[in-house]
Amino acid sequence: MVLRGSEEQRAVAKKLVQQVLKSEIAESLLVDEAQASALIGLKGRNIRQVERVSGARVQVVNKAFPKGVGVQPGRLGSGNLDAEIAALNANETLVIIKGTEEQRAKARELVMVSVEPSAADEEMRLTPEQVDRLLELRGSVRRDIEERTGARLSLLDSSLIVFGKSGQREAARVALEEEFAKEEESRELGGGFPLLMLRLIIGVGGANVRKLEEASGARIRFDTLDQSRDPASSVSLKVRGTAEQRAKGFALIEQEQALYEEERMALDANKHYLLIGRSGDIVKALELQTGTAICFTQSPEPAMVVLGRPDNRRAAIEEARARVAGNPTAAQNIFRVPKEYHADVIGARGRNVQRIERLSGALVHFKGFDSDDCVVTGTPDQQQKAWEMIQETLDLAQVSRLPVPAELHRTLIGPRGTTIKDLELDSGARLSFETEPEACLVARGSEEAREKALSLAQKILDDDKEEHFYVERRYHGWLIGPRGSRIRDIEEETGTRVTMSREEPVVIVEGSRSRREKAWELIQAQMDLMDEVSGESEDDADAK
Known about the structure:
- This protein is about 50% helix and about 20% strand.
- It has 23 helices and 22 strands.
- The longest helix has about 30 residues, at about 515-544.
């Protein structure tokens, strides 16, 4: 390396380079694969701690993970790393330490403390019931034990592998045995609306039930006895722990239930959706704002049911009344929309129904996939506007078909789609083509628009002919124009197809009679223009 600069600059640069080179020196340690797991630690915590304390960079590599665990790939120079990895046995792992001599020494000391000479994993045989218990808890117990003990747990068939230092493994083993010794007790959650009570006990993001678990030492779970979303559905409360923990858990839950009472606000059924909102957004916001759980019922009379503490219930009902009072003329109306057209009204990703709601000011939803009821909420004017837009959508969803052989589709499309665009403009229908099960023209729109579109299309097909016009060959090149520009202009302006015959001095024009006549007029105009241009050229030549 060549250094340029003043003597002082070169000296400083040389010193910095030497420091960098010293910090780039690497050394490696060979450890057992199982012992390396203890070095890495849960989620890499141990190896990051070694790097933080020593200042060195540490990487753990083996044949299964040649890029290593620890630092990001590329942070360590490879040197002869590939050869060292290739020489490893299946159960061996290479620990690479990189840094200054002092950093490497500190890191080497920390690594040797972390890696015990004895096996760093042990196997616990589990009974089928214990395996089922760990699977049933979906990893929550395992994560908790790993966090508390620093060990790592891996479930394999009927056994559990515990990774870590001896103290960590022992602590994990004790925690697992305590967990397996616990029993589960079930009770049904009471009240008229168990699902509402369940939501309050769980709390926002599960915060409330976690407090109950911490206070009791038990694990609390809930199971709905059926899959319906009916707030009155039964709920099974399951508490797992020692006898003392279970008793305390149930006692705390009963205390929690005693805090929440039910209150009803009479509300006509056609006003319910005013407080529910699109996808439940209004009632969800109301629950979050007031700390209550809310549902709507028709029995024994239409009402909004609020479950919560007295002050919270009062706040929720006051807010609900204010919202209803602010929309005195708003109500719900049910319109019949056959369920096979629900998807058309909703549109892709809900865009069409969102457009209807935005332009009408009403809220639109369907009662269910097995119902024809479309519920529109808003003022009478908003409901009417929404229903008109829904009807427009339904009209567009209605289709009529005209059998048209596939080879004639191009006739109705026309040059660059001009013919079909004119058909849509004249009829007000939307047109497309199908090839299966039968080739046809498909019209969408109102009944009047569909009938007009298919009638106009049939006239074009009936009138569509091919006509030959005599045109001397000397005009053919001019009519085609640079890169076909002139013939394209004629086709686009007239909606015909124009081709030059290779066998005869003729121009072939395809289209209806009126379109063919118009195309022939333009062709004649181009021929006259060519004669005019050619005549001027000849006059110029004679003048010279």
